[in-house]
Write a structure and sequence with these properties.
Length: 136
């Protein structure tokens, strides 16, 4: 219970100062009306949700393009919500390729997409952990 009260009292000022390649924090905060607490929550949710989605798209075949398209759309939407523009752009092309049945494009670009998103999540998680340590 003590930890919960500390989280409610927390000053989320450092969140506005973080710098992560591919994340536009100012734009993300603007999307949530400057509410740093909400944006931080959304960032943490992104890590959990997108990490689990990535596991499902490590390999793709023709029979599963519809499912792949839905998952890519989910990652694209979540990335848009936090203002991770590079990931949004990559996801747009992969989603379009899935809808067009272009498995060659997906096979060529999906591995780098997964790697990029994993690296982004790793950096985001490390940064949020550093911020958490300020309040321990």
């Amino acid at each position: 219970m003590k930890r919960s009260k500390e989280l409610l009292k927390r000053d989320y000022e450092p969140i506005g100062q973080i710098e992560i390649d591919g994340l536009d924090v100012a734009k993300g905060l603007e999307r949530y009306n400057g509410n740093k607490r909400v944006y931080t929550y959304v960032l943490r949710t992104y890590i959990t949700d997108v990490r689990s989605l990535l596991r499902t798209i490590e390999s793709v075949d023709m029979k599963w393009l519809t499912g792949y398209s839905y998952i890519i759309n989910g990652i694209k939407a979540a990335s848009y919500d936090i203002s991770a523009g590079e990931i949004v752009e990559m996801a747009k092309y992969l989603e379009a390729a899935a809808k067009d049945g272009n498995i060659e494009y997906i096979n060529k670009n999906n591995p780098s997409f997964v790697k990029t998103v994993r690296s982004f999540i790793y950096n985001l998680e490390a940064t949020l952990l550093d911020i958490d340590l300020i309040f321990v």
